[in-house]
Amino acid sequence: MNKEWPLWEVFVRAKNGLSHKHAGSVHAADARMAVEAARDTYTRRMEGVSLWVVPSAAITASDPGGAEALFAPAQDKVYRHPTFYTIPENVKNI
Amino acid sequence: MPGEDNLFHHAVRLGDDALILAQRLSEWCGHAPMLEVDLALANIALDLFGQATFFLGLAGKLEGQGRDANALAFHRDVLDFRNCLLVEQPNGDFAQTIARQFLFSNWQELLMREIAAAPEVRLAAIGAKAVKEVTYHARYASEWVVRLGDGTEESRARMIAGLDWMWRFVDELFDSRDGTPSLRPEWDARIARTLAEANLELPKPRRAVLGGRAGHHSEHLGHLLCEMQFLPRAYPGAVW
Q: Does B164 touch chain A (CB under 8 A)?
């Protein structure tokens, strides 16, 4: 029997309005313990105002072997960047 | 509210409780069952060291003899400490440490809430900051009581043993000189609620051991102070 507790991925929201960003992982027996472990491990220095924890097993990752097919085609499509538009001066944060 | 002299003693008791428990918890640093727990216990210890600094700092000012928080922490001998006996009890295993934290933090949370709302502004300011910290300590310890109590046969036996060890030091928390007897009914209710959730029975009544508030400590405190006070005494004025 595996005696290690399951792994949880931790996401921290730095301040309201920003999105949760991946911070790292913790071991915990359940979600509630994972939130507390995440609080104690990743927000000790005021890094966050909100936490998400997700069982690491629930994450499906893209296949590194397929990276070329997945990501390379985007390389020569600069027109997808919205840099061809003039942005009105009073629009901030773009 | 008591006069300045009583207020001094009051602040010393609050500061000593936090200081001694913080030092005890620090002993887990690098030894906890897992990294996440190690950090959690160290966080709690740091919160308590912070509270001790404020309470003892205030005590030093009230006394007016030029002693600051460091002087009170490192240059008093065991008979001058006024912490309750509960906080100086040895860590034992993790369950015994959790038992001590559970009983103490639930009491401290109620006490800090009261102090935060009290008319004595200097104490109230420290209490208001401490409430948030201690609320988490109580929650953390209570959750572990449930996990261990309602866990495996082994964890349950250890949790029961831990609570049995600490139970005789509970009555001292409700010493009349701090006006804490009034906190007892709510404390009893909280403890009973968590123990019920943990599927544990209330420990059997034990003959209370008292004396910490009068400076009569167990032998454990002397050893703890020996380690805690060694450096500033061996190297007076040492800086980091």
A: no
